[in-house]
Each structure stands twice: as structure tokens, then as C-alpha cells.
Task: inverse folding
């Protein structure tokens, strides 16, 4: 043996065991004659068994997740077949007695008899690697990909709906002037969702109102409980708020000294939401609100997107918008 090299055949059992532990590899010994399985301490911890204590193969198989057991047993049957290779490799979940689930990658080697037993299986050794962390990371990535696809499809649907409605509300030459602010508001709401795991209705309203409050001549009062909304609903509420604020800047209270804007929301026992935008003006509106496109956005679009019911009440010195969203949608 050359200086500086190690003959790994000379490693004692303690060193080999330490190497397996460092690699995170657990071992299981199968005795086909006695029909038992004996796990080492690491394997016992993974499967929820007693270390170095033999259990029946049926008891061991009971620790394999029931959804994965048929696949594992099929592989074991192939392994026992004399015409099959003496090694299998499977990935499956384990189910401990406390209900804990883990993912393992197992490789099993079979040893057959050489005497009167012929090629019948005598014993086997399985090397078990706990891959729970890796599987969880894969599942998280897959979930994020599905969520991204869902969000992208949802955004495309919302933007397309806005574009169709805006295109019908005025001449083509003013399309971008009317379309871009609404898409900009949607983008602002998306940034809010990225910054926070849970989106509240108040945060959605705050984000949607921010562009309008810089030059507002009145204080806007927000009143309501801490209510979380889905990403989809947050988008719809942001679009509604943008439409209401745009109308209020042009024709309503946000540009009238001494006027008031009160935004409130409440929940019912079923989780439904009643959203209200109420304006009180000192001066009458300079012209009637748009009863075409504005009505579509605030009533039809809101109702279709949230499965709710929206109404508008116009008065000379006041305006009320109410949106009822059921909780059992």
C-alpha cells in the first residue's frame, strides 16, 4: 500500500458504521427464512421501529405508506423471482405509528441459497436514504409552478376583460389613455401580493388608493375588520377601487373641499363581505357619471368576478356603492 493511501478493506465495523451514518444511509437486514426484518438505529427511527429488533415482514410492510405499498410489493416479488436481477431500487413514503410521513430512496440486494434451497431467497440487505427534504423541495417547486400558471392565466383573463370593456367605452384614439391606468393599478396590486403572503382587504384598498390621495382635497376614512382575501379577489377589489376613485376625482368628492369619502366593509357569519364606498359632497356633481362603462366595471364585472351583487345609488350631493360578496362561493 502506497504511503498516504487507505485500504478501505481494512476498515473495522465501527468505521464502516460511522461512514454510513455520515452519509445518512440506514440499513435493514431481511431474513427470508425467519420471515423477519431487522432495522439498524437509523432505519428504526425512519420507520418508527425498535432498533436492532427483528419484526415480521408484514409488520415492516405496514410502515410503508398504503398508497405506495402495492408498488413496493410488486418490486419485491420481482426481486424474489429467480429469473430476475438480485437488486431493486424504489422510492416510497413511510408511515410511522405517530402518523409521520417520510420519503425514502431504497436499494435492496438479495442473497439466494446455494445448497438444497437452490435459488430461493435467504437474506437481503436494504440501504435506505431519507429524501424527505428533497421531495418537499420538489413538491414546493411544483406547487409554485402551478400557482404561477394559475396566476398568469388569471391575469391574462382580467387584462383581456378590462381591454374589451375599455375598447367599448370610447374612441380608439383614447384607448391607451383609458386602458393604461387600469392596468397600472393591477400591476401595483400584484406587487402588494408578492410582498406579503396574505393579502388583506385593507392593504388592497390602501394600495389601490395611493395614486389618488396625493392631490385629494378630502380625507378618506377606512373602516373595517382585518379580513384576508384571495389573490383573485384582491385583484378584483383593486380594479373596483380604482374605478371608484377615478370617478370620484373626475366628478365626485375627492376634488371637493369639505366633502367626505367613507370606505367601509363588514363580514357576516358565513364569511361574506359587504363593501361600501360612500361620498358626501358639498357641491353637486359637475356632470352625471358614466352610466355605460362605469356601470359595467362596477356592477357587471364585479358581480361576475366575485359572484356578488353590486348596486349604485346616485344623489345630487351623495353617492353610494355597495358590493355584497357571499362567503360560500
Result:
Amino acid at each position: 500500500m502506497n504511503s498516504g493511501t487507505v485500504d478501505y478493506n481494512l476498515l473495522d465495523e465501527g468505521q464502516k458504521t460511522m461512514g454510513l451514518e455520515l452519509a445518512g444511509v440506514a440499513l435493514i437486514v431481511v431474513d427470508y427464512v425467519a420471515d423477519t426484518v431487522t432495522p439498524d438505529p437509523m432505519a428504526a427511527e425512519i420507520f418508527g421501529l425498535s432498533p436492532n429488533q427483528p419484526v415480521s415482514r408484514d409488520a415492516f410492510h405496514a410502515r410503508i405508506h398504503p398508497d405506495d405499498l402495492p408498488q413496493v410489493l410488486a418490486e419485491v416479488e420481482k426481486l424474489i423471482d429467480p429469473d430476475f436481477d438480485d437488486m431493486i431500487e424504489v422510492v416510497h413514503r413511510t408511515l410511522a405509528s405517530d402518523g409521520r410521513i417520510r420519503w425514502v430512496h431504497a436499494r435492496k440486494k438479495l442473497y439466494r441459497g446455494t445448497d438444497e434451497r437452490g435459488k430461493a431467497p435467504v437474506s437481503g440487505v436494504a440501504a435506505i436514504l431519507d429524501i424527505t427534504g428533497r421531495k418537499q423541495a420538489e413538491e414546493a417547486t411544483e406547487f409554485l409552478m402551478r400557482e404561477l400558471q394559475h396566476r398568469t392565466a388569471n391575469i391574462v383573463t382580467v387584462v383581456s376583460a378590462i381591454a374589451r370593456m375599455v375598447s367599448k367605452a370610447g374612441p380608439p384614439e383614447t384607448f391607451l389613455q383609458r386602458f393604461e391606468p387600469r392596468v397600472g393599478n393591477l400591476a401595483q396590486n400584484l406587487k402588494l401580493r408578492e410582498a406579503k403572503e396574505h393579502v388583506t382587504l385593507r392593504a388592497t384598498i390602501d394600495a389601490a388608493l395611493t395614486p389618488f390621495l396625493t392631490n385629494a382635497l378630502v380625507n378618506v376614512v377606512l373602516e373595517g375588520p382585518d379580513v384576508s382575501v384571495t389573490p383573485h379577489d384582491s385583484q378584483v377589489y383593486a380594479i373596483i377601487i380604482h374605478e371608484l376613485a377615478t370617478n370620484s376625482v373626475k366628478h365626485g368628492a375627492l376634488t371637493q373641499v369639505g366633502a367626505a369619502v367613507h370606505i367601509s366593509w363588514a363580514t357576516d357569519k358565513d364569511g361574506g363581505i359587504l363593501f361600501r364606498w360612500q361620498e358626501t359632497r358639498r357641491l353637486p356633481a359637475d356632470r352625471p357619471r358614466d352610466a355605460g362603462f362605469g356601470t359595467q366595471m362596477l356592477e357587471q364585472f364585479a358581480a361576475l368576478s366575485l359572484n356578488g351583487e353590486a348596486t349604485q345609488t346616485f344623489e345630487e350631493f351623495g353617492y353610494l356603492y355597495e358590493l355584497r360578496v357571499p362567503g360560500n362561493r
Q: What stands out?
A: Residues 250 and 286 are 9 Å apart (CA to CA). The longest strand covers residues 101-112. The chain is about 45% helix and 25% strand.
